[in-house]
Amino acid sequence: MRKIDIVIIGGGPAGLAAAVAAYDSGVDVLILERDEQLGGILNQCIHNGFGLHTFKEELTGPEYAYRYIRQVSHRQIDIRLNTMVMDISPDRVVTAMNREEGMFQIQAKAVILAMGCRERPRGALNIPGYRPAGIFSAGTAQRLVNIEGYMPGKEVVILGSGDIGLIMARRMTLEGAKVKLVAELMPYSGGLKRNIVQCLDDFDIPLRLSHTVVDIEGKEHITAVTIAEVGADRKPIRGTEERYTCDTLLLSCGLIPENELSTAAGVTLSPITGGPVVNESLETDIEGVFACGNVLHVHDLVDYVSEEAAKAGQTAAWYVRGEFSRDRGREIALKAEDGVRYTVPATLDPNRIEDKLTVRFRVGDVYKDAYVSVYFDDARITHKKKRVIAPGEMEQIILTRKQLDEYPDLRTITIKVERE
User: Fold this and answer.
1) How far is CA 410 from CA 112, 337, 375, 379, in A?
2) Both ends of the chain: CA-CA distance in Å?
3) Cys staple from 296: which of 291, 334, 387, 420, with CB 3.0 to 4.6 Å?
4) CA distance 175 to 376
5) CB within 8 Å of 405: residues ≥ 6 apart
6) By the 8 A CB rule, do 210 and 184 touch?
7) H/E element, 315
8) Would residue 266 be called left, alpha or beta, if left means φ above 0 and alpha means ψ between -120 and 50 degrees?
9) pTM score, two decimals?
10) Has domain 121-253 been given CATH number 3.40.50.2300?
11) DSSP 3-state helix, strand, coil percentages of the chain (rounded to 5)?
12) What is the SS3 assignment for 403?
């Protein structure tokens, strides 16, 4: 059985950034990627808007991916493409297979999970009607148009206002299709504000909040959909139905971290994010197994994925080199309350924080002129006003080692939204 310091599962933006950081920390790295090329989902994201934080310039998805692919190539980091990981054992034996080597196993000193996320399927939506052709997830349509050169249709309705759905509304319009509307079940959009402006408003595409698809017409191919307004209980309101003819329905109804391998390894998953529960070092509750990127929680900006993944690569390297303290000092729980849905990380040990720690979270509703507050036990230490806080945009706070050292008996850190 081959032995290696760190095995990274996934060659997308998270896996690439983790590999570069781990290699630069002095350990051997192997990337296992199931696709035929590195870059992950970025390869089909040909629109711009990437890299403003990381490279201080605006790039397309493939350009952003290439920056990291080039860094991996210059370091001659070992890569296996077209390789499917089948299993990860609790003692970090990775079982994988490809055409050249067949089934093989690798004993890793540390494993970094970077498998990304997938789209929520239509089956989870319970839309009445037949199962005709012409219904695609937004990500599938994006791949068909941008990589394979195939146009799914000419009259389009989009269900869900996630970022991929918003971007595909613009993309389909630019390719000559008529996007009739974007319907969103929730009373707020699931995407970034800038995407609503640039992809819908600039092209006069209507966004119907608190609406959903209640019927699909067509047996062999979709011919029309019916949408209706929903109430506070998210159930359709009778009498509000509207019918739209279309030959394409795109579903942009959320993303789910890809965690079948994590579950098989025994990693505890968060019921809120669907990703692993991690500490300040991005280590899961399985020793030596780390997680980063969209497999951990769905990000809105790839720049934050890269930043988080670089940290996972660094801390995994410290673990391999024995510089990672196994003695837990005082484990402090992070709690999400009053509008905050979750935090990443879920726990922290001040002894493992160098200077500062970035805590990321999302809220469960739209708040205007509200405050993000941080409590150390019962003492409020941060009270920052935000003009708008929305579920579609990830928030973050910075905790410093100095702050934590001032509270030697601290047991709980609580993050919440307050009105005043």
Assistant:
1) 30, 18, 10, 10
2) 60
3) 291
4) 53
5) 350
6) yes
7) helix 302-320
8) left
9) 0.92
10) no
11) 25, 35, 40
12) helix
CA dihedral 403, 405, 407, 411 (to 10 degrees): 100
- Do 1-118+255-324 and 121-253 show the same overall fold? yes
Report how far residue 222's alpha carbon sits from residue 129's, in angstroms, rounded to the nearest whole number: 10
Cβ 117 vs Cβ 255: under 8 Å = yes
Structure-block tokens of residue 417: 């939204």
State the amino acid at position 59 in one-letter form.
Answer: L
DSSP 8-state assignment for residue 198: I
d(CA 161, CA 184): 6
Neighbours of 368 (CB within 10 A): 9
Q: Which of helix, strand or coil describes residue 170?
A: helix
- Report how far apart, in Å, the C-alpha atoms of 61 and of each of 209, 313, 358 are: 29, 22, 25
Distance (Å, whole) CA 261 – CA 218 = 38
CA–CA dist 415, 417 (Å, integer): 7
HSE (side-chain half, CA atoms, 13 Å) at 330: 11
Q: Any idea where the domains of the chain sit in the sequence?
A: 1-118+255-324, 121-253, 329-420
C-beta separation of 278 from 284 below 8 A: yes
Structure tokens at 240: 């509000």
Residues counted in the chain: 420
CA distance 119 to 357: 30
Distance CA 8, CA 402 (A): 33
Kindly list the distances between the CA atom of residue 85 and the CA atoms of 136, 257, 311, in Å, as whole numbers in the listed order.
27, 16, 23
- The per-residue pLDDT string of the chain (420 residues; one tens digit each, 9 = 90 and over) reads 899 999 999 999 999 999 999 999 999 999 999 999 999 999 999 999 899 999 999 999 999 999 999 999 999 999 999 999 999 998 999 999 999 999 999 999 999 999 999 987 755 567 777 778 999 999 999 999 999 999 999 999 999 998 999 999 999 999 999 999 999 999 988 888 889 999 999 999 999 999 999 999 999 999 999 999 999 998 999 999 999 999 999 999 888 899 999 998 999 999 999 999 999 999 999 999 999 999 999 998 999 999 999 999 999 999 999 887 666 667 899 999 999 999 999 999 988 888 899 999 999 999 999 999 999 999 999 999 999 999 888 999 999 999 998 998 899 999 999 988
Taking the C-alpha atoms of residue 313 and residue 309, their distance in angstroms, rounded to an integer, is 6
- Residue pair 139/160 in contact (Cβ under 8 Å)? The answer is no
Q: At 236, is the secondary structure helix, strand, or coil? A: strand
